[in-house]
Structure formats: structure tokens, C-alpha cells
Amino acid sequence: MPWHVSSRTVRRSSSHIVCPPFDGPTSSSFWITAESSKSVSTMNCSSGTTASTPSCTRCRSSTEYRRANRCVRSTIANPRDRSVGSMGKLESREVDGGERGVMIRSMTGFASVEAEHAAVTLRVTLRSVNHRHLDLQVRLPPSMLALEPQLRALVQSRLARGRLELAVSATFVEQPTVEVELNESLVGSLAAALERVRAEGLSIGGLTAGDLLRLPHAVTVRERSGDSEVAADPEVVEAASSAVSRALDELIVMRTCEGEYLAGDLDARCGVVRGLVGQLEASALRGQAALEARLTERVRQLAVDPEPAPGLVAQEVVKCAARSDVNEEIARMQGHLSHWRTIADDDEACGRRLDFLLQEMNREVNTIGSKAEGLEVSELIVSAKAELERLREQVQNVE
Fold first, then answer.
1. Which of 159, 202, 203, 223 is the most buried (most CB within 10 A)?
2. Is residue 103 part of a domain?
3. Is residue 377 part of a domain?
4. Maximum Cα–Cα distance for the chain, whole Å?
5. Helix (H, G, I), strand (E, B), or coil: what is residue 56?
């Protein structure tokens, strides 16, 4: 049974959930699948109260609180719904009214997970930062290098963009055993060369153990095959895959939580752009009407003799004024802004698509600026382009 929380900021520690003030129904939300390693027994509300049953008046009256409290109790009663060390998995869902939860995710995050097995203890760390594509670097112990393709495929199936560093360290229950191999051929050749030098009458010291350790390729230290056999055990392989999967869960939770803030900022800036487009439309219409009036007045002042037919004059004026018509560009901009919401609410990674959409918006704004008439148009175009540039910079953080 999942926990239901609103899409407002939610902070979750190892033993409780802290919910922000309830301000009424929210437009979007998401599910957090309960996979906590520790029992969640309390709910901390914004008023500072803590109890296993509703005690905050605002939260007690909200649907979010009742659902969350009911589902937390169900999770505690069903420990099978929890797995050790995971913070939970964020998934999109459709909320009442058909709106979808915001699925914008950041590319920055960190996760660390430990997994214990009878023969080995594994520690998995995941770090991710911004990148145009998925750039994955995997660091494994020598005895577990054979697992790299499997772990790499697991990460690639869950994440789409970002520079990621996956590091797995293994501590074997038995003390690691090593074997030392002496390159006897190299050492023998070196000793023979030293004897020949002495035979020539040169006085040199003997070859010491320290000299051998400093000599490249003279001594090789490697793990015994026993550790590799432990790492190849199917149960150890499954434990490693499970640990990486849980680390991915934590990383996705962190990236999704940060994505909430990105989504809020992007939505606010899109609202600004939408308002500027509306102002541009009104200003362009006023400018077009003013242009028609100026052209008509100019023709009247020319006082051409014989005077042309009024209908012909009006037709030519309309043709000239039509060159400043930006209705098509305004309609496309409004369509791009509507498409923005469709892309942002998609379940798949949307950063690259939003970047391409912003390029199209910028082209439309440039076209409007070159065609529209009016004193306010230039100022509005500058504001719109500045806001689109801020949007594009922010989109570089979106997966």
C-alpha cells in the first residue's frame, strides 16, 4: 500500500514524515512507494505536533493527511512492503480531474546503500551531475569486474541523462588473501647483469628486497581466486544488483524532489512568457491598426490627381498592413506553451525536448519582433527573450 502525499515539499527522515501546511487541494501529486528500512510510526505536521493519529487540525481535515496516515499504518502492518535501506520510489499518477503529477526530475543527486551477505558486505554510492547525455562511470573491485555489464545495463534502464559515477566496494567476511608472484626471469637477468658489472671492477651494492619492490614488473601482488569465486556466487551477484537498484531508488527520489523546485520555477517563468505573449498580441493589434491609419492618412496627403478609387486604396493599405500581422506566430507560441505542459507531465525524461521547444519559442519571438508594429513591441520582445533564456538555463538541469 503506497503512501499518498501532496506535491508540496515533503521532507522525510528515517522515522517520520514532515508535511508542510495544507493550503487546500493541490493540482498535482505523486505516490511514494513505502520501502523504508525503519518503521514509520509518527506524522509531524507543520504546527509542530507529533502523534500516530491525526492531531493537527489543518492536516486532520485534509484528504492528504487521512490517506497518508491510513497508508502508513498499513505499511507498518505489512513489512513485506518495505526493503532494507531504500528511501522509496516516486512514481507519477493521475490525480482527480485527469491532471498528471509533475514528472520533471533534476540531474543532480547522491545515494549510498550498504548490503550485507554471508560472505561479503557491499557498499554502493551513486553520484550524478548535469550532462547532455547519459555518461556512466563504473568503479568495481577487481574481483567483481565481471558484473560491470549487468550493473551498467541496470542504471541505463532507470536513468536517461546526467554524468553518473557508480562505485561499489566489497568487504569480504574472511580476510582478503593475496598471492605474491616474483618475476624470476626478470630478477635473474638483473642479477646476471649486476655480476657482469662487478666483473668489470665496478663496486656496487647487492640487490635488496626494497629494490625488487620498487622495480616495475618484478613483483606482482594479486587477490587469490577464492575472492573472485565469492564475487561470482549467484547470491552475491543478486545482492549487488539489489543494492544498486536501491541506490537508484534513493537517487531518483532525490532527483525528483529537486525536480519539484525546478518544475515550480519553470512553471512560473512559463506563466511570465504567456503573459508577455498576450501583451505582444494586444500591442501588435494596436500597432497594425495604427499602421493602417498612417498609410491611409499618407495617401490622403499625397493628393493624387485623379484621385484613386477608395476601394483600391483600402486594398493596398490592407496588403501593407498584413505584413505586420503576427497572428500565426502568436498562435504557434500559445501552442508551444500548451505543449510544454504536455511534455513536462510525461513519464519519460523531458529535458532535451523542453530545450528543443524553447528553441522554437525563441524563433517565434524573433519573428514577432521583426514583423509587429508598435512602440511597446521592442520592450516586450526583449523581456520575452530574456525570460526564454532563463528558462533555457534552468532546463539544462532537467533530466
1. 159
2. no
3. yes
4. 124
5. coil
3-class DSSP assignment, residue 3:
strand
| Contact indicator for 103, 346 with CB cutoff of 8 Å | yes
pLDDT, tens only, 184-221: 888 888 888 888 888 877 777 777 778 777 888 788 87
261 Cβ neighbours under 8 A, 6+ residues apart: 9
Residues 47 and 93 in one domain: yes
Q: How confident is the model at residue 298 (pLDDT cuts 50, 70, 90)?
A: confident
- Say whether both 9 and 67 belong to one domain: yes
Phi, psi of 362 (to 5 degrees): -65, -40
What are the grid coordinates assigned to 195, written together? 655480476
Q: In what order do the strands lie in the sheet with 120-129?
A: 109-116, 120-129, 162-172, 134-139
Q: 107 near 162, Cβ under 8 Å?
A: yes
Q: 208 and 77, same structural domain?
A: no
Provide the CA 289 distance to its chain's centre, in angstroms. 47
Question: Which grid cell is 59?
Answer: 492536516
Parallel/antiparallel/unpaired status of strands 89-92 and 109-116: unpaired
Does residue 104 lie in a domain region?
no
User: CA angle, 276 as apex, 275 and 282 as ends, to 5°?
Assistant: 95
What CA–CA distance (Å, rounded) separates 348 from 314?
Answer: 53
Whether pTM > 0.90 for this model: the answer is no
Please give the tally of structural domains in the chain.
4
Cα separation, 376 vs 393, in Å, equals: 26
Residues 295 and 307 in one domain: yes
Does residue 127 sit in the same domain as residue 207?
A: no
Structural domain harbouring 200: 178-223
- Are residues 251 and 262 part of one domain? no
